[in-house]
Amino acid sequence: MAMTMKGEVTLPASKQTVWEKLNDPAVLKECIPGCQALEKTSDTSFSATAKIKVGPVSATFKGNVELTDLDPPNGYKISGQGEGGVAGFAKGGARVALTDAPGGGTILGYDVEANVGGKLAQLGGRLIDGVAKKNADSFFAKFAEVVARG
Amino acid sequence: MSATSSATGIGASVRRKEDLRFITGRGQYTDDVNRPGQGYAFFVRSPHAHANIRKIDSTAAAKMPGVLAILTGDDIAADKVGGLICGWMIHSKDGSPMKAGAHPALAQGKVRYVGDHVAVVIAESLAEARDAAEKVEVDYDVLPAVVDMNAATKKGAPVIHDVADNNTVYNWHLGDKAATDAAFAKAKHVTKLDIVNNRLVPNPMETRAAVGDYEPGTESFTLYTTSQNPHVARLVISAFIGVAPENKLRVIAPDVGGGFGSKIFIYAEEVVCVWAAKKVGRPVKWTADRTEAFLCDAHGRDHLTRAELAIDESGRITGLRVHTLANLGAYLSTFSSSVPTYLYAPLLSGQYDIPAIYAEVDGIYTNTAPVDAYRGAGRPEATYVVERLVEVAARETGVDPAKFRQKNFITKFPHQTPVIMAYDAGNYDASLQKALEMADYKNIGKRKAESERHGKLRGIGISAYIEACGIAPSAAVGSLGAGVGLWESAEVRVNPIGTVEILTGSHSHGQGHETTFAQLVSDRLGIPLDAVSIVHGDTDKVQMGMGTYGSRSGAVGMSAIVKALEKIEAKAKKVAGFCMEASDKDIEFKDGKFTVRGTDKSMDFGAVALQAYIAHKFNGQELEPGLKESAFWDPTNFTFPAGVHICEVEIDPETGITHIERWSAVDDFGNVINPMIVEGQVHGGIAQGIGQAMCENAVYDAKGQLVTASFMDYCMPRADDLPSYQVGMTQTPCPSNPLGIKGCGEAGAIAAPPALINAITDALGTENVPMPATPQAVWRLAQKSITRKAAQ
Predict the structure, then answer these.
(1) Domain with B737 in it: what CATH number?
(2) Nearest of B490, B462, B407, B482 to residue B662 by alpha carbon
(3) Is residue B374 domain-shared with residue B447, that is, in the same domain?
């Protein structure tokens, strides 16, 4: 089942700084909720392990993250897919666009589309939107904190 | 067969003998079976609706604690275990056989629906099996999936089975196209409807389960399974899947907690359990959890139909034409091919004299769970088409729907329809008149006006259903493509002190056979009900049988018992003759007593039974000792239960809540063995029909994920959704079996959906009401209806 989500967040740093942080595996690992491992496998791809809980279903997802449509320092598309074994699978992507904020800092816009299947869809169906929103909020709160830290 | 005055015989509302053990938790279900040293199976299932399997890596999983084995499709193939079969051959209208794709018990290179069986982990405990299953790594190459039938048949749609072009299993037809087209060309009025028969998940209270056991000393297998027909399971697992020869395979279906059709079929899990028992060297047990039941039990219904009815200037129906798309899911389940063809189109004549009928049915593969028989199986779909068409035609032509029906009823029997069936007996107007009376039909106008004064919308809907039960003459179903004969067997074993065991090939999974079958025997032999035990569900005890579905246990199973009892009576008369020094022709048997005609010499049944076994009074060469007889009964025709249900609803347009105010059901089941049990069957059937019409809907999203896979998202009817039913009966005995009975198990589920939707459409003033008519759907339509009325 598919889920979409759109939003933006203003960050207290220059576009260049935000762009660099967005490409730093250590930062991404710190910010992605439940992320246990994130290793670079090429300039634009990572292998990842993340623990995700949706309602009654909790599973460790192993998968790949790819960066495409790179347009430094204006944005990229980040997409990933993971298999959670008996819990099912999750895959999706986010288009990320950076623009200068009028009062200084950077606006990060995101447009997410995600799909889940298997037990996640069967049991977590009506909870997915809430969980995705919560995870996105948690990611950007953490990311803002990291960016502010410099 | 006349009703008896006996408190326990035919016609008596005897309390069910089996209920005490069921309601006190003493039933013995498959999950209650535990074999020493058993391992627990957990299935790795596909989370994708359609994917190629590149690789299955179970290295890490195999090292997990407690793991006994991890088996995949490769192991199935290596052991030459055959695939699951579909046992009814359907031919397309061009004469070509149906296109059935392979259906392996464990996937071989490809998965085709969410829940498809990829691998099985067997471990010392269920928790260990489940934990290890988490570690089985399956590398999927995900393919585009298709769940919509119209999309599945388009060019360029994902191909589910290579053998089936356009994902089409068959383009089947029945009836006279030319005559039907001619009727439509001449029609004064044509009613057209697009009808969706929503997809249902069976949801019996007990989920499926299996325990496979292997005895190396005798090289024999035992399978305990939740089956409605253990002998058919043994036949298929032995003859087609090839796990073991029949004489080395015992199948036991102990107490079974509901089936509704979903336990007729032979599924992958039980095949894997029995096969793996030998491979692993341990008994193997599996019990489905509720999510697995949602995903993998064969679903029901799921038709898209274009239906048309032709009417002449006098208001007579002259033709009926339908084109139905039937979703068969990703694989052909055991009897799936027959449900939307021979169990559907032959019922399209309903209770009406329709000179010309033509039906086309396309069976279609989609990336969804297999679809097969579910309570009524094809007949609810046919009745929904006919009764919606007739209701709408009456409304469109300005005729009272009851009068429209009455005018078109079949009144002479036997009646040959243009679609195979020869109705043997019935009195449709008698049921209609009784139902109209019970429903206080003539005053509905007053009640509607009263509701309107309170801001409510009231409607009334009629459903005059017919079904074909007691399947069926073996030669007839054979000529239509069935792979089996549909007779039934019975054995009567009289014990030396006169108690009796009845071995039947029917199988009870809630129907009450232990009571009704005993009533028949008690009635015929004049012995107490408690002296009769019913044995069923074990292939080592009962030699052969065809099981329970299609309301056949009474009409076919009990008829076999009657035949065996006749043989018992004849033999017992001979024994009594020897004992009382009279010719068996002079012996009368009545109320459990053998009497020499015209004398006061008599012996009771138990005394004759003892003499049959001690054999002191006759020469064993002249008459065989013992008192045991068996019989097979092959029916001469289907049976045709029919009736009229009338539903009255009141809708609150503010909330969209539909309240069922009144339900008047009049059924003609022929002769009745136990009125209380029959009424219970009617209640349960109506509840399921109301569930389909107002609550239940199995929904797959566009990618093939089942989004209604729990009771959170799949709405089952609850007590407060259901009315207090008024149930009545008319009786025209069935001429095609010795008891005159027709069958009652499915009637409610067949009759209810059109009655309810006809009532809701009447209340809302629009015909476009989908099933399920949820409060949200009804609320939207109610708002439109109010706007429309205001504009007028």
Answers:
(1) 3.30.365.10
(2) B462
(3) yes
CA distance A23 to chain B (A): 28
| Beta strands per DSSP E along A43-74 | 45-54, 57-71
The strand pairing partners of B111, in sequence order, are B51
A4 touches chain B (CB under 8 A): no
- Picking from B516, B546, B722, the residue whose alpha carbon sits closest to that of residue B634 is B546
SS3 state at B188: coil
Chain A residues whose beta carbon lies within 8 Å of the beta carbon of residue B705: 1, 116-118, 121-122
DSSP symbol at A143: H
Q: Which residues contact B180 (CB under 8 A, 6 or more apart)?
A: B319, B320, B321, B356, B357, B358
In this structure, the strands spanning B284-287 and B39-45 are parallel
To the nearest whole number, what is the mean pLDDT of chain B?
A: 96
Residue labelled with tokens 């004759």: B608
Amino acid identity of residue B51, one-letter, is A
Rg (CA), chain A: 15
Q: How far is the CA of A121 from the CAs of B53, B303, B674, B706, in angstroms?
A: 21, 25, 46, 7
Closest-CA residue to B354 (of B324, B387, B316, B384): B316
A14–B contact, CB cutoff 8 A: no
**What average pLDDT does range A48-63 have in this prediction?**
84
Binding-face residues of A in 83-112 toward B, CB within 8 A? 83, 85-86, 88-89
- In this structure, are strands B500-504 and B532-535 parallel, antiparallel, or unpaired? parallel
Burial of B569 (0-12, 13-18, 19+ CB in 10 A): middle
Q: Total domain count for chain B? A: 3
Residue B3 pLDDT more than 80? no
Own/partner pairs for A100-103, CB < 8 Å, 24+ apart? Answer: A100/A15, A101/A10
Label residue A110 by pLDDT band (50, 70, 90). Answer: very high
pLDDT at B432: 98
At residue B552, what is the residue type?
R
Quick check: A133 and A26 in contact, CB under 8 A?
Answer: no
Sheet containing B532-535: which strands, arranged edge to edge? B532-535, B500-504, B488-494, B628-633
Least Cα separation, residue A131 to chain B (angstroms): 17
Q: Please tell me if residue A141 touches chain B, with a CB cutoff of 8 Å.
A: no
The nearest CA of chain B is from the CA of A138 a distance in Å of 27
- Residues B628 and B642 both lie in one domain: no
Q: At what angle do helices B513-525 and B559-579 cross, to 10 degrees?
A: 30
Inter-chain touch B707–A116, beta carbons under 8 Å: no
Residues B318, B407 contacting (CB under 8 angstroms)? no
Task: Give the global pTM.
Answer: 0.94
Q: Of B83, B512, B485, B4, nearest to B258 (Cα)?
A: B512
pLDDT band at B250 (very low <50, low <70, confident <90, very high): very high
- Closest in B47, B135, B710 to A88, CB measured: B47
Look up the domain containing B736 and give its range.
Answer: 300-471+637-791
- Which residues on chain B are in Cβ contact (under 8 Å) with A115? 703
- Is residue B49 within 8 A of residue B108, CB to CB? The reply is no
B377 and B443 co-located in one domain: yes
Phi, psi of B102 (to 5 degrees): -65, 150
* Nearest neighbour of A117 by CB, restricted to B114, B137, B138: B114
Mean pLDDT of B394-403: 98
* Helix, strand, or coil (residue B573): helix
Report, in angstroms and rounded to the nearest whole number, the Rg of chain B calculated over CA atoms: 28
The residue among B603, B618, B633 that closes a domain is B633
| Same domain assignment for residues B492 and B616 | yes
The answer to whether ipTM exceeds 0.95 is no
> How far does A56 lie from chain B, in Å, by closest CA?
12
B681, with CB counted inside 10 A (0-12, 13-18, 19+), is buried
Residue B643 and residue B518 in one domain: no
Distance from CA of B692 to the nearest CA of A (A): 21
Nearest to A122 among B136, B702, B706 (CB): B706
